[in-house]
Design a protein that fits this description.
It contains six helices and no strands. By secondary structure, the chain is mainly α.
């Protein structure tokens, strides 16, 4: 029998998956597609994206199969991991929908608008904040040393992407970016 945190984790991943699917279909229908160019060295970029899913996957597996790779973390760790997962999923999905067809894996080739509405009114990078929260959630919920190292790599690679994307945005949007940057924090 699954305990409540395990059930919440499983349901949250289903919701996240449906959100990813809806956004992917929405973007594929546009002419621009979903793939942009890597914002940092391709090895760092793609390994960051791969480790994102390698970190999140074990959390879902652990929620469904509690005996996966050893004993479960105590409830006092699984509950905070579950809460962080729910918050991170909400932030990530709202960020996806706020970006709309501008969402790309990498830098867009086509012209785009600077997004400053929705969650982007409060955070310059809510999508990455969501990624960080989901990764942190997995590290808390499934505190296996390998998962923690994978999560640390994921967060490091995505932070490098943020820095590169901010240079890209400064170049593309100039004064509009500088004004936005002065009024909105990087994360919160």
């Amino acid at each position: 029998m699954l305990l409540l945190p395990n059930l919440i984790v499983a349901i949250t991943f289903i919701i996240m998956g449906l959100g990813f699917l809806a956004m992917t279909v929405r973007i594929i229908k546009t002419k621009d597609g979903i793939i942009g160019k890597p914002s940092i060295h391709p090895f760092l970029f793609y390994s960051g994206k791969i480790t994102m899913f390698l970190s999140w996957g074990p959390e879902l597996i652990k929620a469904i199969i509690p005996s996966f790779l050893g004993p479960e973390a105590p409830l006092w760790m699984r509950w905070p991991g579950t809460v962080v997962l729910c918050i991170g999923t909400l932030v990530l999905l709202l960020s996806f929908f706020d970006l709309g067809s501008s969402l790309k894996y990498g830098l867009p080739d086509s012209s785009t608008q600077l997004k400053t509405s929705g969650l982007y009114r409060y955070s310059r990078h809510p999508l990455y904040l969501g990624v960080f929260l989901l990764t942190l959630s997995s590290m808390i919920y499934f505190p296996n040393i390998i998962n923690i190292l994978i999560g640390a790599w994921c967060i490091s690679a995505h932070y490098m992407m943020i820095l590169a994307e901010e240079k890209f945005l400064a170049k593309r949007f100039g004064p509009e970016w500088e004004s936005y940057k002065k009024h909105v924090r990087r994360f919160l």
